[in-house]
Amino acid sequence: MNLLRAPEVATPRAMAAMVAAFYLVGGVAGLLLTWGGHGQGTARTVMVGMSLSALLSALVVARWGSRWDRNVFHLPIGSAALLVDIAVLLAPDAGTAVAAAALVAFTVMDAVLLFTLYVAAAHVLVGLAGVTIALTVQGDVSLATALALDSVIVALAVATRVLVLRAADAGRDPLTGLANRRGFDEALQHLLADLSRSREPLSAALLDLDHFKAINDTRGHEAGDQVLRRVADEWTRALPPRAVLARHGGDEFALLLPGFAGPAALELLRRLCADHSAVRLSVGVAERRVGDGAAQLMRRADQALYAAKAAGRGRCELDSEGVADPDQELARDLASALAFGELAVHLQPIVELCSGTVVGVEALARWTHSRRGPVAPDVFIAVAERHGLIGALGEQVLTAACTQLAALHRDTGRRLRLGVNVSGLQLSDPGYPARVAAVLAETGWPAGEVVLEVTESLLEADSAVAVAALHTLRALGIRVALDDFGTGYSSFSRLDTLPVDVLKVDSSFIATTTSSVRRAQMLRSIVDLAQALGMDVVAEGVETAEHDALLRGIGCTFGQGWLYGRPMPLAQLASTLAARPLVKAG
Predict the structure, then answer these.
(1) Phi, psi of 246, deg, nearest 5
(2) Does the reported pTM lie above 0.70?
(3) What is the C-alpha to C-alpha distance for residues 489 and 457, in angstroms, rounded to an integer?
């Protein structure tokens, strides 16, 4: 926590709102003090005038303050402190003087919430010195009483600043010091709200480090961390003051450029990439269009990033309607494969760790292209999302998996729970729950044996439709799993708000548990918390007997990985089940 910096809450709009609110309260308090005091004549008139001036100032700041530069706010805060001093001097008695002096707490709180530490300290020192002198000159209040009031205000100011800075750290990435994905999303929402009034251009960009995995694999994760910190430091110094740079996750950074149209943002980023060429980046840029929300803007930036990678990496590309789509041919072939049922569904076993029994499977799509051969799932799924095919792909996988497991149940009597991945685009479709219900009715597969696997990143604050769809599906008896838990900025607090029944701990997290005591203890804590909340835990990526022994030792419920079986066709799964349990109880 950096106490020297200005708190993250100090955006222009927030600054204007806080100063306006304090002027409003101060004006009302001044009128109340005048009404309840015993002063007469000129003093009362001046007090009323100052109170009305404070109320008028509140209106001015609320209306135009969000457009002011941060330095402009020194004037209203300093002026408020001066008004308090005058009110103290005009107070008719000690009680009124102390009550008026207490209003300086508003200027002190404004200062500690809006400015860097040294600037805030200067405001606090001047404000408290002024009100202390005014109380002493007023004559009815002792110096000891004035200093006691000062000490209370200072204590409140220090506590407030520390708490605000700690709260702001929840939106920051601890490795680079940049905003994390949550902080980036909040900044984007604030910018969209502000720019909707000013109509200023806004561009967003996604920056991906080329071949970053090779750095981690050959030089170690510490070297990878140093590269991430270097990019964060160099780009933060080079970017314009209003830019928002965030670590979006893994080796990807996200950037907001208010005031930059798309071509200008592209030119800036190409220049910066050339200036900092020691670390190669692929960059996708998109300019906000009228009607774009946060999700639409970032989706187009992601499309531009994909185009940059497809063109050979180390490039900056601007999203545009006129840009040729590098995967158009693959999308046409995928659409044809879906129409003719050419995609296969493989099933990967999920094992109950305490008994070693296969109790479920995850359905995974597989596609063998007629000319290209096997196409990686992350490639054709991304193509499906970009070309409006993800709904058809998801429905085909669900139908095939339910049909296969229903046949397995008829032939063997084995009922396995079915896990299927669902895209955020599917959940955002209002008709998705009804189509899932129709597939279950058609195949005869019970809803209680279906687990929909979603990632937390799909359930952002603006995904109310997606969360509502999950609630509808759970009402049918379907269970929901939070996939890839332990990566990105997985938040324990969201487990209380999202409709989740199962946590799937990401394979990258499991891979280090046998070599890291801290990771193992973290996993134990996750398992304990999930069990306390009535959730099951599935550990993904279990590849060794050591992983299996550790997971069973800490009480993890289920495991999935190559140790228990790779994704396989239904016939191979049936043979495996008939032969023996995949893992014997330990």
Answers:
(1) -135, 150
(2) no
(3) 9
